[in-house]
Amino acid sequence: MDRWNGGGRRSWRRLSPGALLLALALLGGAALLERLDLLPPGTVERLLGQEPKRPAYRVPAVPPDAARVDVAEVEGWLARVRVVAEKQKGYRREDWPHWAEVPGSCRDVRAAVLIRDSLEPVQLSSDGCRVIRGRWRDSYTGQESRDPHELDIDHRVPLDEAHDSGGHAWSRERRAAYANDLTDRRTLVTVAAAVNRAKGSKGPDEWLPPDRTQLCRYVADWVAVKLRWELAVDARERAAIDQVLDGCRRAGR
């Protein structure tokens, strides 16, 4: 079969009729296997040299009892955030050093966030360096836990999302500052490990908290972090945020 050309697309006109039929049969088979979840989504687009399309995400409705935010203020923040297509390659977790040791302490940033977010004084290890018990409420689900091993410290705007939306141009020092930011509690938050892993690297256009009463607060904090760190949003992300904020406005009436 013909080689891929420099533009990333196959020159179909140079294929023989037999080769063309074979190629179409292979693409049809790949499409069928993709629909049956036997191949990853976007396989056909990749075979054609195209950027895979993300599936549509339906933003959930904001309930009347949602935590209130100043929608006008958040929209003002959002207006100052650039809308730019994401850079979706090159992220490596090791380029974002996190859970650094807190200066003047034997504790790391993870322990510092656990202490900050506990609803009651925490119990520390005998050396005072590790948190072994406390009481935390996951703001994404509303569930409570007393065991820190059940918890993750979530980067509200995930590290790879930060990379894609501007952090790819940062120095290693600035990446470390972001990954260990204790100066604004909206950057790092204590959540259940399972829900944090479900969120992964997704933005508001792909994932929002299961506790719908937290939709407004979550989106407001997301925008605040992006603005503070001069990160961009892409068009799809911006549309999802606008939709949530519109729901927050109507729920607050």
Protein described:
This protein has 9 helices and 6 strands. It has 253 residues and is mostly helical. The protein folds into 2 domains: 53 residues, no CATH class; 181 residues, no CATH class. Strand 3 and strand 4 form a beta hairpin. Helix 3 runs parallel beside helix 8 and helix 8 packs across helix 9. It is globular, with a radius of gyration of 22 Å. The N and C termini lie far apart (62 Å).
Blueprint (SSEs and pairs):
Elements: H1 17-35, H2 43-47, H3 71-79, H4 109-117, E1 123-124, E2 131-133, E3 136-137, E4 144-145, E5 151-155, H5 159-164, H6 172-179, E6 188-192, H7 193-199, H8 215-228, H9 235-251
Helix pairs in contact: 3-8, 3-9, 8-9
Structural class: mainly alpha
For this structure, the quaternary state is single chain
Overall number of strands: 6
What is the overall silhouette?
globular
How many angstroms separate the termini?
62 Å
Q: What is the gyration radius calculated from CA atoms?
A: 22 Å
Helix amount: 25-40%
Which sequence of SSEs, written as H and E, runs from N to C?
HHHHEEEEEHHEHHH
Counting H and I runs of at least 4 residues, what is the number of helices? 9
- Beta-strand content estimate: 5-15%
- How many discrete domains? 2
- Sheet with most strands: 2 strands, antiparallel
Average predicted local confidence, pLDDT: 87
- Residue runs with pLDDT of under 50 for 5 or more positions: 1-10
Side-by-side strand order of the widest sheet = 1-2
